[in-house]
Structure formats: structure tokens, C-alpha cells
Amino acid sequence: MTRIVVRAVAWWLLGAAAGLVLGGATSFGQTYLPGGLNSSANSNGGWTLLAFVVVVAVTRRPSARRWWVGAVLGLVVFHALLQGYAVVSTLRGFPDAYGPGDFYFTVATLAGPVLGLAGSWWWSRRRMLRAVGVAVFAGTMIGDGVSALLRVLATTGWAWWTLSIVIGAATLAWVVVRRLDRRRERLVAAGLTVVAAGAFVGLFSLL
Known about the structure:
mainly alpha, 8 helices
């Protein structure tokens, strides 16, 4: 048991380090990425993409695939991304506060564990969990893209939001074709993606 906990803490620390570095890098991306793409550096889809990739990369190791390790890893990575962004932005002369009470602190706390589970299920032997996991990711990417195109297109351009939709749809399609064998699993993946994307758009239309 002690060895399991030590390994879990090691994975969480690795996730935190990766999150801080990538989050700090997005501060520069917001400034230097070409117009239309710089929105990715400070968007729900951008944070989701980075957090999901980190979780998938870390949980490639079997010892990191326990559900509770993945859930906490997602929480840690998401918070580290936002903290890294805030710290680097502040050091660059663009003050940014992040902590309890902040909107994105709440987002990271609620969405982080869900995204962590989704990322860890990428490697699951149970294909239904793979279907659910990819739906969480794809639905968020598509939902964020559609929501932004409806709400902030005039001020941010269309490039990143369209790319966000493409990334979500392409990931879903690849998993459905290459990593799911049964019709039921494919329908679950596609259906939950639509539900997740719709819920995302509906929620952010109220904020």
C-alpha cells in the first residue's frame, strides 16, 4: 500500500510540474501566437487539451491508471496549468490573480477530476470507458468552439474556435474507428459527445 501511495504522489508531482510549465508557456502564447490562434492560450478548450494530453501521457504507465490516481491527477494538472499561467503573466507585467473564489478555480476543481478520469480511461481495457472518456474530451472541445463562435467571434476571430471543434471531432472519429469495436460503444461515444457539447454551450450561454 505504501508503494502505491508513493507512486501516486510521484505521478501527481510530475503532473503538477508539467502543468506549471505548460501553463506558463500559454502566457507567452497569448502574446506571440498568430492572431486568431492566441485565444487558445486562455480558453477552456486550450486548458482542456493540455490537461487531457498530460493525463494521457502520465497514465500510459500502468501504475498511474487507478481511477483515484487519474482523478486527482486531472485536478492537480488543471490547477497547475492555471497557476502557471497566472504566475508567468504576473512576472511579465500582466498581473493575474488565481485562487479560491476565482471562476476558473471553480472550473478546475469541478472539471479537473472528470477530465483526469477521462484521460486515464484512454488506456482502459474496457472499451465502454474509452467511449465515455473520449466523449468528455471531444464534447468539451467542440462545445467550447461552438460556444465561442456564438459569443465572442467578433473580438477573437474564428481560427482557434474552429480548430477546437476540429480537434474534438477528429479525436472522436479516430477513437470510434480505431479503438472501439462494437456499435453500442460507438453510439455511446458519439451520443455523449453531442450531449456534452450541448451542455457546455447551454451552460456558458447562461454565464
